[in-house]
Amino acid sequence: MKFTLNWLKEFVDFCGTAAELSKLLTSAGLEVESLTPLHEPENQAEDWLFEIAVTPNRGDCLGLLGIAREVCALTGAQAKFPAVQTSKKDPRIHKRVALKIEDAGQCARYSARIVDQIKIASSTPLIRFRLESCGIRAINNVVDATNCVMIETGQPLHAFDLARLTAKQIVVRSAGENRKFTTLDGVERELAHEDLLICDGDTPVALAGVMGGMNSEVSAATTSILLESANFAPATIRRTAKRLALHSEASHRFERGVDPEGTLRALDRAVQLISENGGCRPLAGAADCYPEKVKPVTIRLRKPRISRILGVEIELRQAEKLLRSLGLKTTRQAQQLNVVIPTSRPDLTREIDLIGELARLHGYDNIPTTLPLLRPTGGALDFRLAGERKLGNFFAGEGFVEAINLPFTSDALNGLFRGLWQGSQAAVPLLNPLAQENSAMRHSLLPGLLENLRVNLAQKTASFHVYHLGKVFRCHPTGGYEERLCVGGLMHGARAVRGLRRRDESTLDFLQCKGAVEGAIELFGLHDSITWTAVASDILHPGRGAQLHHKDCPIGLLGQLHPDVSEQLEVPQVYVFELDFEKLLEYAPRRMGVRVLAKFPAIERDFAIVVDRDFAAHRIIGWIEHLGESLIEHVRVFDQYIGAPIPDGKKSLAYNISYRAEDRTLTDSEVNPLHRSVVDRIGKEFGAERRS
Amino acid sequence: MTDSLEALRGEVLERIQQANSVKELEQLRIEMLGRSGSITQLLRGLKDLPTEVRPRMGERLNQLRRALEQELDARLAAVSRQAKSKALAEEKIDITLPGTRLDRGHRHPITLVIDEIVEIFLSMGFEIARGPDIEDDYHNFEALNIPKDHPARDMQDTFFVAGGNLLRTHTSPVQIRTMESRKPPLQIIVPGAVYRHDDDATHSPMFHQVEGFMVDHDIAFADLKGVLTHVLRQIFNRDAGVRFRPSFFPFTEPSAEIDIQCVICGGGGTLRNGQSCRVCKASGWLEILGAGMIDPAVFKFVGYDAEEFTGFAFGMGVERIAMLKYGIDDIRLFFQNDLRFLRQFS
């Protein structure tokens, strides 16, 4: 809402400065968004343009009258209204025009006046200046008068060229079968059944509360006008304006509620403004269709309730004074007030609304600042937060930077990167995406990270290790939506080393990627219960991809991005991983036990075997563990060698077994035969040739 | 004999002093004190001396031997020390060369700010609640007292998905979901991503909020002031001015916008160079939080008796706080994940 200070002063005796008013309004909830100095035309008098943010509940402050009432409440000043000649009983108007409201639920009131012998001309420079300052184009004396009155009273008005209303019968009704209507901006609009129309007989002449029609527009040739001042249902106007994306000054006000008691006052003021330049002849009477008078409501306000909500005592006497300053009527009854709400404040419907008004007028600054006692509820250690922090710290230590991406992606990328979803792969589509390539909710975090890689490669980044903890989405197979928190990662280039160039720098490989994933798994105590299997996936290198399972449940995948995908997305070779963070949390043991420290030393023995190149090293470990040999404490693979003198198609694997007894120190004579036997059996079991 | 001993002594001592290496000194020790060394030979020759001079001669020779041994040891220690110093001096490195280390990673600035805010609330006994990003109209609007066809919906441009659902426009639906399933007392904080159909330098289609609320028999607006003043001073500055202004949200009554004194100009509205502050538009204040007492209509939706319970709720935009804290002027920087930007938060 924009207005100028001098204009406002015609409605209230305010003698402070613009800056003072600005502070006052902001502190009362009418936030002043900008304040600009102006000079009136002709006399060059100083003026100020105020732009205030009016919250949706305060439709009454979309007019100077309402703002003036606020200023009165805040300063004790007196409100005033320019003297106007009010309409009189004059039956002549009923011979000129008839009014009919089909549904009072859509239109509570429709008032009209007629002005004859009008000369269409420009408005005065002051009116033009004020309207233009407030962002409204000045058009002619009639239209400008209606707009002035709208700014002054908040009541939108519309002027019809009376000569163009041939039936002389105004009907307010739903569009029904009327499908099309051309508004005065020359655009033909598609109508919906429930749009509210103003009709002249059968002919639509205005889209009620939104915009007038081209067929009845005031023009230079107009000599008689019908001025409309009506009260339309907010929701109806909003639906129409929203659907047609036709947001007008009028619809903005009707959506927020206009005082049904103010229609005549606005009409009279408009007639006065039009008459000010002389010449025209208004009919003295007004036509007024007001099927059911809107009555002020009475609300009970209990004193104890005030202090309970606000935390400050406000005496009833004080409360009365504050509420009366807003123009509310109050009567006292023991520990409560009965408050009569004028129709200009449709936002005040409940006791709590009055408490809100009291808080506002008492001043938020005058409400004390207290700290509530702690309740015996919260502060519980949040397992997920702890997990998120642990993961963040781990990845930071591993050299990963956290990325956050928007969850939107394209159908094509969703088709390729299906993430960890099993079964149904239906993506969640956005009905109103910002761009077509962002029209679906992502299945996977990887496309976002790959896009980040591209951004950074453009900056010549040699090493790019990132992770993203974010949600992925899909349509649930049985209806509804499903979202899961996952962690995705991308590694490109060797981990960056600060300092001098190092000659032993390693290049990124699969095992480094696996190491990062293993570390993340270990954070949740799951390293012993995860199985790793080679996986065939469209996005992973056929020989360098793995899936992780906990029991039978897939919880992640990792590997080198398939060279075809790299090529398609125009990115270099990268390693990626994606883990189901929620499953990690779900399976993580909540309690950790400490093993007793061994009392006796272990004896370690190594062995190496030659096996086929595609033999899975872990099979030997699983087999040894499966033996259940009580003296074997631990087995690990520590080397793999390919090349001469190992024959082509073969590889050498080296393992280490740790032997330990709980109750004694083992001796070579006990361990050696056992080790020999284990290694011999491995040779037989796997057809492996022993190397040392 | 005595004179020749003195001469020998002088000569050997001189040689010891001149020796510059461990090797030379060991050589000397062998020459003098070894099995066929000069002193050893002399000692062996004692038996050929007349008995009356033998004791005196013996004593002098032994004195000489001890003295030489002492000198040798002393010189040896000195020479070793010198050799070590020399070796250490040769190991000297240029300490101005850069240290070697693996690049550390770090968390995203938004995560850092969320973590900081959450930590403050956790320390006050709040607990965390979460909810879905894809919400239904009921939880995102209806139950928050934002009916269909109400202009308050314009405050939040919405992304829609099929089935009448939407991407939550604020974290407030979690308020509803929590109250639907639990009874007071509640003191809850809700960090999370939210979505608005908007995209420019100050609006991102996704951003983050931290929502919070407290409900019990006796929670008042004064408590809201206390808790949020404390939190804002923790986030920004112990001495920062905090201002509560009336505002409107459909789900709270009374409602407040909460401002802090501008972190750029210090609240004066003008910069040190005399120009007016762009960040607070010269007002001296920055809007940082929306809050209010939970509207009885909301309590009704979740089945609470508004006569029995009162509570406050608030929400803040994380990106806005991060932008103010770090002087960032384009919100899109947060989601491009350009390392040149992110690295500054390590």
**How would you sum up the major sheet of chain B?**
7 strands, mixed
Mean pLDDT of chain A: 92
Spans of at least 5 consecutive residues with low confidence of chain B: none
Which oligomeric state applies?
heterodimer
Number of helices of chain A: 20
- Identify the overall geometry of chain A: elongated
Report the uncertain regions of chain A. Answer: none
The Rg value of chain B, from CA coordinates, equals 43 Å
Strand order of the largest sheet of chain A: 19-22-23-28-27-26-25
Short description:
The complex is a heterodimer of chains A (692) and B (346). With 692 residues, chain A is α+β, with helices and mostly antiparallel strands. Chain B is an alpha+beta fold and 346 residues long.
How would you characterize this protein structure?
The complex is a heterodimer of chains A (692) and B (346). In chain A, 30% of the residues lie in helices and 27% in strands. With 692 residues, chain A is α+β, with helices and mostly antiparallel strands. A seven-stranded mixed sheet of chain A has the order 19-22-23-28-27-26-25. A five-stranded mixed sheet of chain A has the order 4-7-10-11-12. In chain A, strands 5, 6, 13, 14 and 15 form a five-stranded antiparallel sheet that branches. The model of chain A has no long low-confidence stretch (mean pLDDT 92). A seven-stranded mixed sheet of chain B has the order 2-6-7-11-10-9-8, sandwiched between helices. A three-stranded antiparallel sheet of chain B has the order 3-5-4. In chain B, strand 4 and strand 5 (165-167) form a beta hairpin. The mean pLDDT of chain B is 90. Classes of the chains: A alpha+beta (692), B alpha+beta (346). Chains A and B meet through helix 7, helix 10, helix 12, helix 13 and strand 19 of A and strand 1, helix 5, strand 2, strand 4 and strand 6 of B.
